Amino acid sequence: MRHECYFCITKTVEKLINKFEPKPVVAEDFVFSVHQLLGENRDMANPYLATRVHRLAKEKLNHSNLFKQEKSQANNLLLDQYDHWKSVIEQADNPLYMAAKLAVIGNIIDYGAHSVEDDIIAQIHSLQQQDFKIDETTELIAKIKKAKRILYLGDNAGEIVFDKLFIDTMQHHGVTYVVRGKSVINDVTFEDTKQTGLDKICRVISNGYDAPSTLVEYCSNEFKDEYNKADLIISKGQGNFEGLLHKSHPNLYFMLIAKCNPMGELLGVTKGDMVVTNLKTD
Question: Helix, strand or coil for residue 254?
Fold first, then answer.
């Protein structure tokens, strides 16, 4: 575990304590339980550690859905602007490219350690003026047009509204959208697909696990079957990127914003850069 990852996790713990204001004895128990967990598992990859930390948070803080209100608010905020962004896409020279860009921009909505600022809409407009740092969107679009079965791995609430716009713009009948098996941070669940209406435009399944990532070996048999049969996998967000980075699939595309320096270094970009890539590492 890199030291930056350690501080990222402890920052998350601090934010949760500030949010829920537990009794001092509960806060102390939570903090030192996390420190013990980290100390005993310093060689564990971050997605696996994050899963255990957030399970611990739900247990110690006695909340099964730590960001339920924020998730609903983010979904509603973007839903209120749905027609505007649909119009932006329709008026673009390349509507599918614009929809893909907005899907990446939506990845800015995060309530973990790298929290989104209060004015989400201002950030979206700012990112709309920026270019991708790694841009394999044209190749991805070509793959979308050829694929029969597309597996789309969702990431965050709010962001899901731009996922919906992207999938709607694809006009592809073979898309399956994947949500988390249980609530974790502000990641998407079945509840978010129903709130946003995404479940009305494509098939939705759960991956059957509560990691803020996609850890294939722990996912449900249904998910594994879809994963193995997919012609194309679209993976949204840094959490999914970390979990799938070393997985073998010829048509696995990552769409994300680099939210920390270690991920930026791995991708060869700077923190805050937008990326669409079929990156493979050994």
Answer: strand
- pTM for this prediction: 0.95
3-class state of residue 92 by DSSP: coil
Q: In what order do the strands lie in the sheet with 134-135?
A: 134-135, 274-277, 252-257, 232-236, 150-153, 175-179, 203-206
Angle in degrees, CA 5, 11, 14, rounded to 5: 150
pLDDT averaged over 10-residue windows placed end to end, the chain, 282 residues: 83 93 97 95 91 96 94 95 96 98 93 64 92 97 97 97 98 97 96 98 98 97 96 96 88 95 92 90 44
Q: Which domain holds residue 30?
A: 3-61
Is 234 inside any structural domain? yes
* Domain CATH for 145: 3.40.50.10880
Q: Where are the beta strands (DSSP E) in 82-216?
A: 134-135, 150-153, 175-179, 203-206
